[in-house]
Amino acid sequence: MRLLYLAHDLDDAAIWRRAAMLRAGGAEVQVMGFRRRSGPLPGEAICLGRTADARMVQRAGAVLRALLTLGAALKDMPPPEAIIARNPEMLMLAARARQRWPEAALVYEVLDIHRMMLGDGPRPRAMRALERRLLRGASVILTSSPGFIREYFEPFGQTTAPIRLVENKCFFPGAALPPAQPGPRDGPLRIGWFGILRCAWTLDCLDRITRAEPGRYRIVLRGKPAADQLPDFAEVVAANPDMVFEGPYRAPEDLPAIYADVDLAFLIDRYDAGQNSDWLLPNRLYEGCRHGAVPVVLTGTEVARTLAARGLGVAVPAPQAEAVARVLGSLDRASIERMKAAVAAVPAAVWTTSQAECLDLVEALRRAAHPDTTELSPREAAE
User: Fold this and answer.
1) Which residues form the Glycosyltransferase subfamily 4-like N-terminal domain (predicted)?
2) In which element (H, E) is residue 289 found?
3) Interior CA angle at 232 toward 231 and 237, to 5°?
């Protein structure tokens, strides 16, 4: 099956994880999209231009420019059977591509609900109306959390297309990366905050709880700080002897080592409090649990409900530094080891995408692209 994957950020590792999953499912994938950083990409892609974090006007302009040049970029490409548009801004490009290939199925992938889509003001209403119009011809929606379906797609009536849940699980193409989980350790409680670091509340909270009890905690930060949201990130970390920033990391290659270095994975995010932050199931949930770290979550969020159903994690009752300090202060080494054992006892398939899931995903896309066919899929034929 041939797929055209339109990606909003080619420098996002999650884009390449999805492309690898699709290829593992038997698809031929052409990746095309925008860049936000420099340096080599993990794979081959057609670059449509550059965009920037948190600059929606600039990103809109880049999309409009790409609409003018998209025909030339697609000129020598074989016709895809489906076009996957990741995030709202790529839907417009997908609509233009379908003018060239009207028989291609439209697949919309949504892993976040941007704040610009929410609220009752004229701009979010207009954005939702545009999204609804562009989704009239959609064959299937891919989303990563039941919270997005329950809180966004259903109440706003954004689409009549079927919605398929594809969680942000780890994926290790052609390899079995874990283990690297250490045994009990002494010393301060080690807490990891990894990924795209953009929540000012989280940075302030972790800074405050360490300053309240010097030496009890060691905060390890890894990933990419969002300078537009955390302009004082470097200063805060440098001024706190119990915090350290270890820089970016590679996923999945570095995941076993970085999670083996901590006891707890901090999953509380208030960047879009009451909206996206409460509805998502983030990458760090699956990465942390797959590699043995105990997740710290906020009661009432989708991630807290998911973990509570399995009796896992540390739940904080309120988004206050005092509440975080109170809950973490009640933990001793024995209780942490018990919680680690509970996380380790969960089947790896809960946190990791299997080859069978890749095959099922591509088969779902094939059926969306060819709804009237009775031909057996390669997987069915093999069975």
Assistant:
1) 17-168
2) helix 283-290
3) 135
Question: Both 21 and 135 in a single domain?
Answer: yes
Alpha-carbon gap, residue 296 to 310, rounded angstroms? 14
How far apart (Å, rounded) are the C-alpha atoms in residues 301 and 254?
28
Please enumerate in sequence order all residues whose Cβ is within 8 A of that of 340, keeping only pairs 6 or more positions apart, or say none.
181, 263, 292, 293, 294
Could you tell me whether strands 46-50 and 28-35 are parallel, antiparallel, or unpaired per DSSP bridges?
A: parallel
On the question of pLDDT at 228 being above 60, the answer is yes
Same domain, yes or no: 125 and 139: yes
Buried b (16+ CB within 10 A) or exposed e, 231-259: eebeebbeebebbebeeebebbeebbebb
Verify that 285 and 378 share a domain, yes or no. no
- What's the one-letter identity of residue 378? P
Residue 378 burial (C-beta neighbours within 10 Å; 0-12, 13-18, 19+) = middle
Structure tokens at 345: 């006892």
Evaluate whether 340 touches 314 at the Cβ level (below 8 Å): no
Say yes or no: 334 and 358 in one domain: no
> How far, CA to CA in Å, does 157 sit from each of 149, 153, 154, 258?
10, 6, 5, 41
pLDDT at 376: 47
Place of tokens 């600039």: 58
Confidence of residue 84 (pLDDT cuts 50, 70, 90): very high
Q: Are residues 373 and 331 in the same domain?
A: no
CA angle 3/126/276 to nearest 5° reads 65
pTM of the model: 0.92
Q: Check which CATH number belongs to the domain holding 108 and give it.
A: 3.40.50.2000
For the chain, the domain total comes to 2
Strand 294-298 and strand 314-316: the pairing is: parallel
